[in-house]
Each structure stands twice: as structure tokens, then as C-alpha cells.
Amino acid sequence: MIEPRPPAPLPPGFAPGASVHAVRPGALDVSHRVILYLEDLTVAFDGFRALNRLTLYVEAGELRCLIGPNGAGKTTLMDVITGKTRPDSGTAFFGQSLDLTRMDEAAIAEAGIGRKFQKPTVFERHSVFDNLELAMKADRRVRGSFLARLDGEARGRIDETLRTIRLGHLARRPAGTLSHGQKQWLEIGMLLVQEPKLLLLDEPVAGMTDEERERTAELIVSLAGARSVLVVEHDMDFVARLGGKVTVLHEGAVLAEGPLEQVQRDPRVIEVYLGR
Amino acid sequence: MDAVARPPLPRWHLPMPRSGWAALGGFCLVAFLVVPALHLLAPAGSALHLSDYAVTLGGKVMCYAIVALALDLVWGYGGILSLGHGLFFALGGYAFGMYLMRAIGREGVYQSDLPDFMVFLDWKSLPWYWRGTEHAPWALALVVLAPALVALVFGWFAFRSRIRGVYFSIITQALTLAAMLLFFRNETGFGGNNGFTDFKRILGHSITSPATRVALFALTAAALAGSLLLCRWLVSSRYGRVLTAIRDAEPRVRSLGYEPARYKLFAWTSSAALCGVAGALYVPQVGIINPSEMSPAASIEIAVWVAVGGRGTLVGPVLGAALVNLAKSWFTVAFPAFWNVFLGLLFIAVTLFLPGGLVGLWRRLTRRAEAKA
């Protein structure tokens, strides 16, 4: 037997301009600091262009907010990134090497893109802990499920996630007894244990109380850095609270991009969106 | 934080409350010592003697309890309501019945090597699927394989096609009905509407002797206890948590990367195999198997046992099967015409007033008592 050669080590960190790095097929490569490349994306439904030559880059570790009036293409964009919808033209790359337009939904999730939908769906009769356990990256086959036990590392990751989403004291409670906001956090936790590199959050504070909004904002801000977070949100106060760069979509294309104050002053943005 | 404090558990850990183990121990004591002693040792005239009828009834009820348990695994934990579990039970019964028919030898009415009904039909040789059934080990393998194979093939198509809910239930009902009509035919080679009966021997022992009766009773009790522990272990493993998650929110489970169809198929096939074992234990004790076991009504009755006991509790369906069947044996003597009416009313009453069944009621009452204390 010939020993397989170990792959060359990747350079540490996401050092900009790192010129020497090994490209491992199927692995995320963010050596150029950018985690998501969307270029010239077009999606048409019966002639209606939900996305119209949209170009957008998201950096590794960035927190980005996506805003725009209804029908601007926010949800379609999320669908393209997660593989639910195929673009008619344009490219979508996750890191340097992963072509999202050629991967199916499961492969994209596996590669490290996690999406939280608006409506939370947690397993109501399972405990908070069990919800996280079910979501955790592990063997999904029937065969392995009978004797599966959490090892120390996995348990540690769940506990860490419980602390992050601040539900540690409710770990044994059935998820059905949680408040709306807590369910949303649990759902974010269920994404986190899958160790995504890019987190897509669709209206994370819809229907929340003010206090829950504040805690959600803290949570989301704390999540960025170790991973990139892309938030779709209508609520301007919440977007302001998150900080970070804002991208305004309009009619399937990027209208403006930059810090919120700058975007809010943009006359085109005021015209189509904020002014109404 | 209590999540951190959960101690590491051994791989085969079986979470069951102490009262559960105590009840199981008590059950084993009665089944393996008390009943055999009262039947074999107590003289026939004495007040302590347990009659043939009582032992057979007990054995029969335990077979039904295994079937209820099997249905609870798929219905209570997997959300898959089968209205055709009688089919799997009957297939196991027929598989072992083939061995019992062969064991009659030449002591039948026609003194032929062939079972009587085949002689009656003027058949000259055994059909191919009867081959090897004179060997008990092969017949026992068939007991598990036949229902499991039918379930596997049917389940594979049904779960792949994402057939769920009431549609699935109706198809299972149709399946058992179709099988019943098939088995009614003499040409099928399973004795037509008379089925199999007049057994003489089992593994060389007279099938009517008290020792055989007690042995079958104890074996059934062991099978019931074993099935209960097996199901308990299964539902408390990660497999069980995925299965219940599928029951509650199947699309969400799929979005997490699991394949629900495979999880369901495993539960479904195991459940069918368990029913087969119950059927095989049932036939030698009751002394007959015929297509009526596959009737749609018989399968619906199984669902009633589970609902009465409380689905998703394992122990509930066992109790439900026992109580409903004991009530049935009394009812069919006292008011034979009204059993079906009673069964229907019972089902309606449980659905309306006791959604958690008897176990659910018990839990509600104890919780209330605790809250007061």
C-alpha cells in the first residue's frame, strides 16, 4: 500500500495577497478575502427579471445587510446562493473554487452555507439540546444512528452554542415551550452547530419584542468575524443597530452599497425606497 | 448549566424509570413462574388452577400486545398510521403455520404427506414456496422474512413517493384487503378460507399438552418483554429522536440533510418483522390461522388498541391491547351482537376525550396530584 500524500497545508488565516496556497477541490478557499462572488446574475420568471445582472461580493467574516423594497429580488438572491433557484446567466462562487450554480442544495449546505428562513421551524417536542444535537454535523445515515453518542467535543460545541444563543438554562425544555424570539435563536443555533462559513438570515427579528431585537442584534454582531453573515431585513433601526455595510437592491440589481448613513443619503435610494 | 452536567452514558444505556424495571420484573415473575406453576402444579379441581382457556387467552393477548407495540413504533413515534398491520401478523402466522401443517405428517384425514387441503384439491405435489417448510428453522426465518420483505418493498415505493398521512393509511388498508382476497383463493395454496388448522405437533411435542402450552406462553411473554426493551432502546437512541423529528416536521429533517424515507423504512420494516413473530407465536396457541386475520377490520382494531393505551408510549399500547381484548372476550360472550358497536364507541370516546390514551390520562392525573402536593 502506498501512503497517500497529505495535502499541502493551507496558509494560516485569510492573509490578503497570500500568493501561495493549495486549492483543494471541494473545499472552501477564501485566500482572496472574499467568500461570496456573485457576478452578472440574472433570474427571470416568465419574462419578469427577479434578478437583473446583479453583482455582489461578500468578504470573509463580514456582516452585510441586504435591504430593498418588496420584489427587489432579496429572496431570489438567497435562493440562488442556496441552490434552490438556478440563475439563467451569471456566476456564483463560494470562495475561489466552489461554483454554486453547479451544486445542489445539500452540497451547498454541506460546503458551509446555512440559511435561516423567516418562519422558525424547530422540533417542538424535542428539547432545546436535542434540537441542536439533531442539527449538528454528523453521520446522517440510519446505520450510524442506533449507537450514536455525543463525544466530548460535540457536547462542548453544543454547550458553546447554547451559551452563544443564551439558551443554556433552557437546554432541557421542550422547544415548543420557548417564546417566538427564543425559537428564532434556537434556529440560529441549529445553523451554528453545522459550522457554516456563511450564514444567511432572512428577516431575523420579524415579530420580535424590542428586548428580543436588541439581544438578536448582539447575537448577530457576535457571529460575524468567525463567519460571514448576510442579513435580509426591512427594519432600518435594526439594520442601523447591526452596523456593517448595507447593500440596497432594486428591481433585481444593486442600487447602492456602503455604510447605512451614506446609503440613506443617496438620492436614488431615497427615491425608490426610503422616501416612500 | 444542566446541559453541561449530563453525565457520559454507556453506549447501550437504556433510559427507563425504576418503576418500569420493577413492572417488567413483576411481569416476568408472573409469566415465568406463577402461571406455569398454577397451570401445571395446581390440581385441576382446585381454586388455584389456571385453566387451559385462561393460559391460551393470556398467550393470545400477549401476541396482540406485540403487534400493538409494533404499530406504536411506526404510528406513535414515526407518525405513520398503518391500517394494514394485520397483514404482517397473518404472514408470520402463515409462515409458521406451514411448518405446523408439515409437522402433521400422515396423521391427517387423508393420511397423505401433503396437507389435507391440497389432497382435497387433488394436488399431487407441494407448490415451490412450500419447499423446506418441514424444517422449523427455515419456517422461523420465513416468519420474519416474509412480512419484512413485503413491508420493505411496499415501504420503499410509498416513502420514496412521499406518500403520507391518510393516503398512506388507506393504501395499507387496501393492501391487507387485497392480500385477504388472495389468500381466500384455494389456488393460492394456503388452504383458502379455512386456512391452516388441526395441528398435531410442534418440534416433536404434542401441541395440546399442558407443558407445550406453558412453554409457548412463556416464550410469548419473553418475546413481548424483549420487544418492549428493543423498542424502548430504539426510540431512546438518536435514531428514535430523528424518527420523532420526522413525525413532527419532516421537511425540516430533510433540510438538515437526513433522508426521512430511510428512517421510516427501517421502522416500518422492523415493525412488520415484529408482527410476523407475534403471528408465529399466535398460531400454535390458538390452533388456527385463516385469512380473516387480514381483514381490514382486524387491522383497524389494532389501531384502536394503540389509541386506547396511548400512542407514543410503548407501554400504553401493550396495556391497550390487553384491556380491549380481555373486554372483547367477556363482551362476545355476554353481548355478542354489540362488540363492534362498543369498539366503535370506544374509539370515538378515546379520540375525543383521551387523545393521550390511558397512559396520557395517568400522566395527567399524576401531574395534577404532584402539583397539588
Name the descriptors:
heterodimer, A: 276 residues, alpha/beta, Rossmann fold, six-stranded mixed beta sheet, four-stranded antiparallel beta sheet, B: 373 residues, mainly alpha, two-stranded antiparallel ribbon, two-stranded antiparallel sheet, 14 helices, 4 strands, 2% strand, globular, disordered N terminus
Strand order of the largest sheet of chain B: 1-4
Order of helices and strands of chain B: HHHHHHHEEEHHHEHHHH
- Measured distance between first and last alpha carbons of chain A: 70 Å
Tell me the overall shape of chain B.
Answer: globular
Low-confidence stretches of chain A: 7-19
* Arrangement of strands in the largest sheet of chain A: 6-7-8-3-9-10
The biggest sheet of chain A amounts to: 6 strands, mixed
Radius of gyration of chain B: 22 Å
Shape of chain A: globular
The fold-level CATH name of the domain at 34-122 and 180-274 in chain A is: Rossmann fold
Helix content of chain B: 55-70%
Residues in β-strands, percent of chain B: under 5%
